[in-house]
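Example record

The entry below shows one chain as it appears in the dataset: sequence first, then C-alpha cells.
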Amino acid sequence: QVQLVESGGGLVQAGGSLRLSCAASGRAVSVYSMGWFRQAPGKEREFVASISRSGLDTLYDDSLKGRFAVSRDNAKNTMYLQMNNLEPEDTAVYYCAAAPRTSRMYRAYDYWGQGTQVTVSS
C-alpha cells in the first residue's frame, strides 16, 4: 500500500507556472512508476504524464509535452509536475497515481491521491 498526497495547486494567470508535488508514504515511491492525470468539470479523466521507477523514461500527452515536465526524487519520496505557460484549458483537478509500470491508461494505476485544484484565469 502507498498513500499519495498532491500539493501545489492554486490560482494562476494564463502564461504563468506552477509546480505540483506528489508525496508518497507507506512504501518507497521508487517501487512504482508514477503518473499524473487531470479532470476538468464535465470531462473525463485524461492522461498528463508518467515517469518510470528510475526516472529515465517519461511519457506525455502530445499536447502538453512542450509545456509540462514530470520528474521524481526517490530520495524524497516525491514526484513533481512542472507546468509552464499555463492556459485556461489547463484548469482541472490534478491527480497523481502509482502503477507497476508506465502507462497512459488510468486503469493501470493502483493508487491515487485525492487531487489538487489548478485554476488558470484568462
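Notes for this example: The chain is about 0% helix and 50% strand. The chain has a mean pLDDT of 95.
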